[in-house]
Amino acid sequence: MEAWRLPVSSSIRGKLISAGYTSLSSISSVSSSDLARDVNITEEEAFEIMKLANQASGSNSCNGSRSLINGAKNAWDMLHEEDSLPRITTSCSDLDNILGGGISCRDVTEIGGVPGIGKTQIGIQLSVNVQIPREFGGLGGKAIYIDTEGSFMVERALQIAEACVEDMKEYTGYMHKHFKANQVEMKPKDILENIIYFRVCSYTEQIALVNHLDKFISENKDVKVVIIDSITFHFRQDFDDLAQRTRVLSEMALKFMKLAKKFSLAVSIYRTHYYTSLTLTRLSLSRGHTQPVTLRLALILQSQVVLLNQVTTKYTQGTFQLALALGDSWSHSCTNRVILYWNGDERYAYIDKSPSLPSASASYTVTSRGLRNSSSSSKRVKMM
Amino acid sequence: MKPENLLLRSPTSRKLTTGCEILDECLRGGFPCNSMTEIVAESGCGKTQLCLQLSLCAQLPISLGGLDGSSLYLHSEFPFPFRRLHQLSRSFHQSNPSIYANHNDNPCDHVFVQNVHSVDHLFDIMPRIDSFVRNSKKRFPLKLIVLDSIAALFRSEFDNTPSDLKKRSSLFFKVSGKLKQLANKFDLAVVITNQVTDFVESSDGLSGLRIGNLRYLCSSGRRVVPALGLAWANCVNSRFFISRSDKIVCKEKTENDESGPSSVSRRAQRRLDIVFSPYLPGASCEFMITREGICAVQA
């Protein structure tokens, strides 16, 4: 049903349509204050319109003429929603740029890379950055950190939190005085307190925890990011029945997706392990999956990993190749995927899969203060 | 399942001193508890020396950087250097007499040694560690597990066939999962040693894959890579690398023997590098092995 059918005055109707509110659902998807601002009317008027729109769409859905399933949205509304979604900065502006502003909420993002490339560092950085207050352009939320590998170190988190607080203080220096007065004082201690940390020691615990997350997050609504470091660790042992593993994992993946959508939080999965194996092994790993084994990842990495292109061009079997762990079926389980790799002495991130972002790579560096740009302008810290 | 409050954890996780201040500074206090640390080196670099020293240092009181606990030394490389342990423990006893004064025991009493013959044997032992820790004495509860070395167990038993390699890597994750579980449950420090293999430049291999801070590892003038490959590298939290280079460290000219040019002493120079670690930046430290144990050389 279109907006022009609403029983409102023609001037308001004109304003509505010229502001882009052509459908009823676009009106009901925003708050009344947003509507008032966009259309340039008073809040009372906006509220009245909202009410009318809701009534109209209610009767509409009863008729069943437009939306078959309640809750269906059109792409235009979703685009609006997506634009307004907050993103969590990585503290490295180059990386933020290729990610379209940071790790996005409502999405499942997977980050992979060899040991020591900085996956855990990104995880800790995100769990700190999600707490940056709204006044500073952050989310002001809490983080859930699920540690399966035992790599989370409190002292490192504290170090990054301290640097984050320092940066925020520096930032307020440039701001108005009246703002300084009412800004909330954030302490590194508070940041640590808002990281909800789970240490998981087996895959049964991991599955149980993921099942429990829904309830946990609905009790702690301000959780904005869930970080799992790493999804793979416990699933690379003791699974002789690979079909079962695939089932368990896809169930878990579905739950993540649901969580992310439901609470519009960001889920960062660290499928931390690259998987090296003989092609033969890999074939057997992806058994039960109908697609042929693709060498996509290997192709992408060819310029970074020594001589991988030969693998993909010359041989099809019996040669080494790099891929992310857990087989191909898992690739369908995440919305975005970022791969970290070494290029010379610099760390790079590459967007391997994303529905909305172009493939791109950016360099980053891990400093004592956390993740930063690796350009010389930010004075790359060589730590000794 | 309840989340852990990070504030209740000590801001710096407990560390086990290496017994040398300079080395400790490089490692920010030593080897962390509730974490798995791997020491990679070729033979003769001092892996075992460092492990022996750690298993003694664990008995130091917490104020001195120790863990106030005993240690379990699983060794798969034979023979176990009992003589050397004894030698180290004597000097350890001499420098820390107060710990043992009232109890009439000596440091060797608190280092438990267990041999491991095979991977199956290891899986046999690991479940028993749980009850061992629980029943360990009040005075020195178990605080350190050393596995010297993982490579000796896994390098011999498996063929280079796909099915064997697949089985092998799932066993890595099993070993590591179990040890990390123990480390988490009892706040243990876990130290594992690993061997190296020569880096072979090949057209189809991934041996050149870079892991960690160092572009490549060099020891005794050769390029080496840690044994057991990428799968194992995913299993550890931190990896340290010890390299050695034979260098002329000092020219000792003894006074009564002036004519001898042969008094040039060649001493192996050893160097510890941090390959990767979640809490340490890349750093390195040179050290030497003396009669009293490992001690770093100030750069």
From TrEMBL, chain A:
Cellular compartments annotated:
Nucleus
A GO term for molecular function? ATP binding
Q: Which Gene3D superfamilies match?
A: P-loop containing nucleotide triphosphate hydrolases
Which segments constitute the RecA family profile domain? 84-274
- UniProtKB keywords: ATP-binding, DNA damage, DNA repair, Nucleotide-binding, Nucleus
What highest taxon heads this organism's lineage? Eukaryota
Q: Which GO terms describe its cellular component?
A: nucleus
What GO terms describe the biological role, i.e. biological process, of this protein?
Answer: DNA repair
Protein name in UniProt = DNA repair protein RAD51 homolog 3
Organism from which the protein derives: Cardamine amara subsp. amara
Automatic annotation (TrEMBL), chain B:
Q: Which GO terms describe its molecular function?
A: ATP binding
Lineage, top-rank taxon, reads Eukaryota
Q: Which GO terms describe its cellular component?
A: nucleus
Q: Which residues cross the membrane?
A: none
Q: Where in the cell is it found?
A: Nucleus
| Keywords tagged on the record | ATP-binding, DNA damage, DNA repair, Nucleotide-binding, Nucleus
* InterPro entries on file: DNA_recomb/repair_RecA-like, P-loop_NTPase, Rad51_C, RecA_ATP-bd, XRCC3-like_C
Q: Keyword Nucleotide-binding on this protein? A: yes
Q: What GO biological process, any one, is recorded here? A: DNA repair
- Please give the Gene3D superfamilies that the UniProt record associates with this protein: P-loop containing nucleotide triphosphate hydrolases
Instruction: Write down the Pfam families for this protein, in alphabetical order.
Output: Rad51
Question: What PROSITE patterns would the database entry show?
Answer: RECA_2
Q: Which residues form the RecA family profile domain?
A: 12-196
Q: What is this protein called?
A: DNA repair protein XRCC3
